[in-house]
TrEMBL record:
This is Carboxymuconolactone decarboxylase family protein. It comes from Lampropedia puyangensis. It comes from the Bacteria. Residues 56-95 form the Carboxymuconolactone decarboxylase-like domain. Transmembrane segments: none annotated. GO terms for molecular function: peroxiredoxin activity. InterPro entries: AhpD-like (IPR029032), AhpD_core (IPR004675), CMD-like (IPR003779).
Amino acid sequence: MSRLTLYTQETAPEASQARVEKVQKNMGFIPNLIGTLAGSPQAIETYQTVGLINGQTSLNLAEREVVQITAARLHGCGFCVAGHTATVIKGKVLTDAQVLALHEGKPMDDARLQAVATFTHAIIAYRGAVPDALLQAFMDAGYTQQQALDVVLGVSLATLCNFSNNLAQNDINPQLQPYAAGTFKGSV
C-alpha cells in the first residue's frame, strides 16, 4: 500500500488531470507511479517531458530500456523493473534471457547491451565520475560521447521514477506483477 496518495484522474490536482487521463487512455489503467506523480503537477510534467526527450536520444529502444531496468534494479525499485520489463517483453525489444540477466545483474548475451548495462551501473556507482577504464570500455564497445551523456539522461529519468516509487512505497499494479523480478520467468 502506498504511503503517499495515489491520485486518479478525478482526484488529481487540476493541473495533473489531463496528464493522468492521457495515461489512462493509452495504457488502460493508471500505474501507481503516475498516481503518485500526479500529486505534483511539476513532477508528472517533468516525468512525461523527460520521457519524451529520452525517447529521442542516440540510444535505441533496447539500449534505453537496459538503462531503465539496470537503474531500477540498482535503486531497488521493483515497480520500475516490472514496468520496463512489461515494455520490453510486450514489444519484443529484449529476449527473456536478456531480461532475466538484467533482473539478476548477470552478464547479457549481447556485448553491446552488456556494455550499456555495465556503463549504467558505473554512472550510478561513481555518481558520474566513471573511471577512465570504464568509460573507455563503453567507447570500445562502439558507443560515443553523446551516447555516454544519453545514458546519464536515462539515469536521471530513472532516478525520478525510482525514487518517487521508493518514497511512496508503491505496490506493483496487478497488470505489471507478472513482470516483476523474481516473478518473471519468461514470456507472459
